[in-house]
């Protein structure tokens, strides 16, 4: 098992293609290794050491992928969403205690303004002709010691995407990222012949590890788009000729909506599999994707604290509605209050080399989310679920998202699954609506299929025939588009406020 990002890319043939992008030549593994050396040399000349933290704010694409992998072999990377406002950049940069920030050479936006106010070192990235090849330009300084990060050094720092509290800092070690990349590559049986079409944002763990790092762990190649765009997805497929892609469910649904008019592309470029993660994939969408692409649809289960993957459906047998079997770390069910493992339904917990050592500077969160049991350290995921007889994990939802209607506990995922069977519904997200007497009531936001019509009462009647009365949404909002987070996920917590159904506190 390799334990650093440097080890991951050291093992592949020089001439093998590593990184591609629209309108640019391919970068080979020899080129990627040289880029890592060049980046480290530049950073050391700016006085940046292996322990220093470097924020990266770049548009999605091959330069961002390369900058992550190469800078992480020299220092601690902290990729940030380039769409943040100045106040958001200021918060994250200060919270991270970043020493420097890498920006595109001509960038003059809010990240620069925030970094200048905080006195950060500004490093400019200048792209070259090959995908992911660049030079770094910064201020001359006393050179830092040219040591390479080891397995226990922090490779990547991300914040949790919490909606109800201050985001927590998640440091991921070189060994965490390397373990997860290899776990994913093994789960998907990736080889040097595989090519990933990346549509995921590269400031998020899903894209960074499942698409980029896992590809490099296997010696495959990755073609990096500028971000997800359903309008040009099939054009990108034609250019990249991938064997797989990974995405969140909302992206898969958008791809499906344009698949029939691109049947020739699908036939010309057969995918070995499709992967879905970061949110629950409705069984109906999994089945439609499988039928459309004539390929397995692999749903996986991941989170930032696990350096992404925890479970994955096997290539030879997928269960719609399940996130699969343990695929890297140990996965178990714990009592939701007591620190012990149980059978049946409870909180999903994990233990393994891909799991973060703990939240930074947050002893309260660490005490709440980590516990020792039978000599092993377990992390509480905040998800509720249970294993079936075959060892496949079925999630019932985030513990914070479980709807408590007057003492009746309702899984929003279960309601989603029923409503997705309605012939007029394309997308749905079920969420809690505050109620003065019951505490919470069930509500749902839906998007209808093109050309289809349905009324709120029709949808409620449909649900009432298929589930107990207390689970039937009392409010159904029909929308053109459901609000999503930065990574394309529909967020249940706070949805009632977003839709104006309650007054924010």
Descriptive report:
By secondary structure, the chain is an alpha/beta fold. It folds into two domains: 5-293, 3-Layer(aba) Sandwich (Rossmann fold); 403-498, ANL, C-terminal domain (GMP Synthetase, Chain A, domain 3, 2-Layer Sandwich). It has 15 helices and 26 strands. The strands form six sheets. Strands 2-1-11-10-12-13-14-15-16 form a nine-stranded mixed beta sheet, sandwiched between helices. The protein has a five-stranded mixed beta sheet with strand order 4-3-5-6-7. Strands 17, 18, 19, 20 and 21 form a five-stranded antiparallel beta sheet that branches. β10 (195-198), α7 and β11 (221-224) form a beta-alpha-beta unit. It is globular and about 70 Å long. It starts with a helix and ends in a 7-residue tail after the last helix.
What key attributes describe this structure?
505 residues, alpha/beta, Rossmann fold, GMP Synthetase, Chain A, domain 3, nine-stranded mixed sheet, five-stranded mixed sheet, globular
CATH topology of the largest domain: Rossmann fold
Number of helices: 15
Integer-rounded radius of gyration: 23 Å
What sort of overall outline do the alpha carbons produce when their principal axes are compared?
A: globular
The CATH class of the largest domain is Alpha Beta
Total strand segments: 26
Can you identify the CATH superfamily of the largest domain? ANL, N-terminal domain
Number of domains: 2
> What can be said about the biggest beta sheet?
9 strands, mixed
């Amino acid at each position: 098992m390799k334990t650093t990002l440097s080890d991951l890319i050291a093992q592949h043939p020089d001439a093998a293609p590593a990184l591609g992008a629209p309108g640019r030549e391919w970068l080979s593994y020899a080129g990627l290794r040289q880029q890592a050396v060049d980046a480290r040399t530049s950073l050391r000349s700016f006085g940046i050491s292996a322990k220093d933290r470097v924020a990266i704010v770049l548009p999605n694409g091959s330069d961002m992928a390369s900058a992550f992998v190469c800078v992480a072999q020299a220092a601690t990377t902290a990729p940030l969403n380039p769409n943040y406002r100045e106040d958001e950049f200021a918060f994250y940069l200060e919270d991270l205690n970043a020493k420097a920030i890498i920006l595109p050479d001509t960038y003059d936006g809010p990240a620069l303004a925030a970094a200048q106010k905080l006195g950060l070192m500004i490093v400019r990235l200048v792209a070259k002709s090959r995908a992911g090849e660049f030079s770094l330009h910064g201020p001359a300084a006393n050179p830092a010691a040219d040591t390479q990060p080891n397995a226990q050094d922090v490779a990547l720092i991300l914040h949790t995407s919490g909606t109800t509290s201050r985001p927590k800092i998640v440091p991921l070690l070189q060994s965490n990222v390397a373990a997860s990349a290899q776990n994913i590559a093994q789960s998907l049986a990736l080889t040097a012949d595989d090519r990933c079409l990346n549509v995921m944002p590269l400031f998020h763990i899903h894209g960074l590890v499942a698409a980029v790092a896992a590809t490099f762990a296997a010696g495959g190649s990755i073609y990096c788009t500028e971000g997800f765009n359903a309008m040009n997805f099939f054009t990108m497929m034609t250019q990249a000729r991938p064997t797989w892609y990974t995405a969140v469910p909302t992206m898969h649904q958008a791809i499906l909506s344009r698949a029939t008019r691109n049947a020739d592309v699908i036939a010309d470029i057969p995918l070995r599999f499709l992967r879905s993660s970061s949110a629950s994939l409705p069984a109906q969408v999994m089945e439609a994707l499988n039928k459309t692409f004539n390929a397995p649809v692999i749903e996986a289960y991941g989170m930032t604290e696990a350096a992404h993957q925890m479970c994955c459906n096997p290539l030879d047998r997928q269960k719609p509605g399940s996130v699969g079997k343990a695929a890297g770390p140990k996965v178990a069910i714990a009592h939701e209050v007591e620190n012990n493992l149980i059978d049946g339904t409870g909180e999903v917990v994990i233990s393994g080399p891909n799991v973060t050592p703990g939240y930074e500077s947050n002893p309260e969160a660490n005490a709440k989310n980590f516990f020792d049991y039978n000599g092993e350290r377990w992390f509480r995921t905040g998800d509720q679920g249970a294993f079936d007889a075959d060892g496949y994990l079925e999630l019932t939802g985030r513990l914070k998202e479980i709807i408590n209607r007057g003492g009746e506990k309702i899984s929003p995922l279960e309601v989603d699954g029923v409503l997705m069977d309605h012939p007029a519904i394309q997308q749905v997200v079920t969420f809690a609506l505050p109620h003065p007497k019951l505490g919470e009531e069930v509500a749902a936001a839906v998007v209808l299929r093109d050309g289809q019509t349905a009324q709120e009462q029709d949808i409620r009647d449909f649900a009432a025939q298929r589930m107990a009365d207390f689970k039937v949404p009392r409010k159904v909002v029909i929308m053109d588009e459901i609000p999503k987070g930065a990574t394309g996920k529909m967020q249940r917590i706070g949805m009632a406020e977003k839709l104006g159904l309650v007054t924010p506190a």
